[in-house]
Write a structure and sequence with these properties.
heterodimer; A: alpha/beta; Aspartate Aminotransferase, domain 2; Aspartate Aminotransferase, domain 1; four-stranded antiparallel sheet; 13 strands; B: alpha+beta; Sufe protein. Chain: A; Arc Repressor Mutant, subunit A; GMP Synthetase, Chain A, domain 3; three-stranded antiparallel sheet; three-stranded mixed sheet; 11 helices; globular; pyridoxal phosphate binding (chain A); iron (chain A); Cysteine desulfurase (chain A); pyridoxal phosphate (chain A); PyrdxlP-dep_Trfase_major (chain A)
Chain lengths: 400, 294
């Protein structure tokens, strides 16, 4: 395996060794079906029960409120479709412009099926306007679906305030918490959240496992129809090794929540040093209302893919919302929704840390990054906001 | 992750000819060409130093805002240009830039197009041809997101033999924003295919009749016809002696060809050109045609 400095933990994380150890017997020895009547299957069923309790504990929820899914996207789809199907007379959805594609593209799809969707805007620090949230709600609103924390910028939304407004208008409240779980303490007992999505591979479990929290009493119809599994809310034989892994990962995440300030300190050190060492550099997103592990930095006048591939030369992994990395031609919808200038949009890089990130790794990034940025800026025809060519471009964009 | 060739990565990590040109001697001129924009996500400013007497490109430098393949394509372009005359340079296609790099992922072909367009812009600047008069800026705007006209789409479709709107998006970005013009691009491709088929049909008719056409041919028909005669009658003849020929360009009645293989170095190549190719084309298309080798 190639050693690397992995600062792309909002994309996916390494599997914790304890997690791997916990799941391994369920890939080998304990292959029974948890629904079986014999002891061989029953012991597997008990492992699933334990995992359900571990996940519930992380969320401050009851075990019966946890539905295992295959991933975050499935959780979002199940939550949104399930809540809408339970309220067929309400045809309005409220979400935001900066959601993950799992929510955003589903909402666009639902528009074609006759739903009306309000896409809440964000300000240039990526924050919601609560008065806009309230103004968007009507008695016809079936569902409010917003993310807890943004995957690209780490900006955290005032979820409980939005949830209270949703309650006031009788709407079901779904939160995509894929990026927040394990980084922010959650307690469903005191929350307004009805449905909450989480994903295993963001918290050091493997890919292919996730969970949906469904508050007791919430009207919800299953999307996957079949057997009785998951109390009839998600049919299909359980991914037992994945579920056991998610349970262990949830237990470890709960334990590590106490140490999250260490990640924050390293993130702040990385961010502050970059801003000090490299001119024409900005942080995208609110400086405080943010996940402790994420920083999104705009390097003006250069393009993100070129920065990523240069970092890659030093075995440093990060990510970018630039158009060139995705092949979509349009830069990140999140940064565009924030109204950032194009000089920043295309050159924005996300560094996302984990509990495995070390000071030595951050120092190595800080050692090579200034040279990379300098080299690419020397290649670029843009070098300041005064450049007439650039200004024409920016003005043209503003005029659009 | 993109599947870039080693040569793309080499030209990205160690680009040749980056920078600007500011100093020149007597008898030399400097020109620049700019394409792209910071909003599109890539932009290239190409600098050329030209010997004014011979129109030979003495030096080429680039400044690029863009991804790895944009930087590599720009650098490749400058490598291809030095030593060429402006006319030779104008014949450079985006395909040649991509080929020089051992190919580009299709989604990144627009990087090579950007190089070719910056080159044109630089030469047009030097020759005082207003860019507004360029074919590409005529005609209707098809893609509003990236400001791409139908003329530009036509050119890129013809030059690269594109068949789908998605390919057009990869080459010139048109259709890659809101996507509302994708059906217009479909229509445009269908139109071009139809035009080409009509031209081929007309040319075939002329060949079969073995007489000089009475009505004047359109440029496209003329090119198609010349190409058919080259392919079917002249190339097989030259191949017997290990030679080959390719149509380079036509300007009115002036037909420019490239003599290749054994023909390129053959002392009797002028005879081949005049007696073989020119006579045949005059006989078949128009007695006023002149053929030259470039």
């Amino acid at each position: 395996m190639r050693e690397c400095i992995y600062l792309d933990n909002n994309a996916t994380t390494q599997i914790d060794e304890e997690v791997l150890g916990a799941m391994m017997p369920y890939l080998t020895l304990y292959y029974g079906n948890p629904s079986s009547m014999h002891t061989f299957g029953g012991q597997v069923g008990r492992a699933v029960t334990t995992a359900r309790e571990q996940v519930a504990s992380l969320l401050g929820a009851d075990a019966s409120e946890i539905v295992f899914t295959s991933c975050g996207t499935e959780g979002d789809n199940a939550a949104i479709r399930g809540a809408l199907a339970a309220q067929p007379n309400k045809r309005h959805i409220v979400t935001s412009e900066v959601e993950h594609p799992a929510v955003l593209n589903l909402c666009k799809n639902l528009e074609k099926q006759g739903y009306t969707v309000t896409y809440l805007s964000v300000n240039n620090q990526g924050q919601l306007d609560l008065s806009e949230v309230e103004a968007s709600l009507t008695g016809n609103t079936a569902l409010v679906s917003i993310m807890y924390a943004n995957n690209e910028t780490g900006v955290v939304f005032p979820v409980e305030k939005v949830g209270q407004l949703a309650k006031d208008y009788g709407a079901i409240f779904h939160v995509d918490a894929v990026q927040a779980v394990g980084k922010i303490p959650l307690n469903m007992q005191t929350s307004t959240i009805d449905l909450l999505t989480l994903s295993g591979h963001k918290i050091h479990a493997p890919k292919g496992i996730g969970a949906l929290y469904v508050r007791r009493g919430t009207r919800f119809r299953p999307s996957m129809i079949g057997g009785h599994q998951e109390r009839g809310r998600r049919a299909g034989t359980e991914n037992v090794p994945g579920i056991v892994a998610l349970g262990k990962a949830a237990e470890l995440a709960q334990y590590h929540l106490a140490n999250v300030s260490g990640e924050r300190q390293l993130r702040d050190y990385l961010e502050q040093t970059i801003l000090t060492l490299i001119p024409n550099t900005v942080v995208n997103g609110h400086p405080i209302q943010r996940l402790p592990n994420t920083t999104n930095i705009g390097f003006k006048y250069i393009e993100g893919e070129a920065i990523l591939l240069s970092l890659n030369q030093y075995e440093i992994c990060a990510s970018s919302g630039s158009a060139c990395t995705s092949g979509s031609l349009e830069p990140s919808h999140v940064l565009r929704a924030m109204g950032l200038p194009y000089s920043v949009l295309h050159g924005s890089i996300r560094f996302s840390l984990s509990r495995y990130t070390t000071q030595t790794q951050i120092d190595r990034v800080l050692e090579v990054l200034p040279g990379i940025i300098e080299r690419l800026r020397a290649l670029s025809p843009f070098n300041s906001d005064d450049s007439s060519w650039l200004q024409e471009q920016e003005l043209a964009v503003l005029a659009k | 992750m993109w599947d870039y060739t080693d040569k793309v990565m080499e030209f990205f990590y160690n680009p040749r000819n980056q920078g600007t040109i500011t100093e020149k001697n007597e008898g030399e001129a400097i020109t620049t060409g700019e394409v792209g924009s910071i909003s599109c996500g890539d932009a290239l400013r190409l600098h050329l130093k030209i010997d004014t007497a011979t129109e030979i490109i003495l030096d080429a430098r680039f400044q690029t805002f863009g991804c790895a393949s944009a930087i590599a394509s720009s650098s490749a372009l400058t490598e291809l240009l030095v030593g060429k005359t402006l006319d030779e340079a104008l014949s450079l296609t985006n395909k040649q830039i991509a080929e020089f790099l051992g190919g580009l992922p299709e989604e990144k072909m627009h990087c090579s197009v950007m190089g070719q367009e910056a080159l044109e812009a630089a030469i047009f600047n030097y020759r005082g041809i207003p860019l507004d008069n360029h074919d590409d800026d005529e005609g209707a705007l098809v893609c509003r997101c990236f400001g791409v006209s139908d003329a530009r789409i036509r050119r890129i479709v013809s030059e690269n033999g594109l068949t789908t709107a998605e390919q057009v998006t990869h080459y010139v970005k048109a259709g890659g924003g809101c996507g509302s013009c994708l059906t217009d691009i479909d229509d445009l491709i269908a139109e071009i295919v139809l035009e080409q088929e009509t031209a081929v049909a007309a040319a075939t008719k002329v060949i079969q009749s073995k007489t000089i056409p009475t009505t004047p041919l359109t440029n496209l028909q003329k090119i198609t016809l010349i190409q058919q005669i080259l392919e079917q009658e002249i190339k097989p003849m030259l191949a017997q002696d290990g030679g080959d020929v390719e149509l380079f360009d036509i300007e009115g009645d002036l037909v420019k060809v490239i003599l290749k293989g054994a023909c390129g170095s053959c002392p009797s190549s002028t005879a081949t050109l005049k007696m073989g190719i020119e006579a045949r084309l005059q006989e078949r298309i128009s007695p006023t045609l002149t053929v030259i080798a470039v």
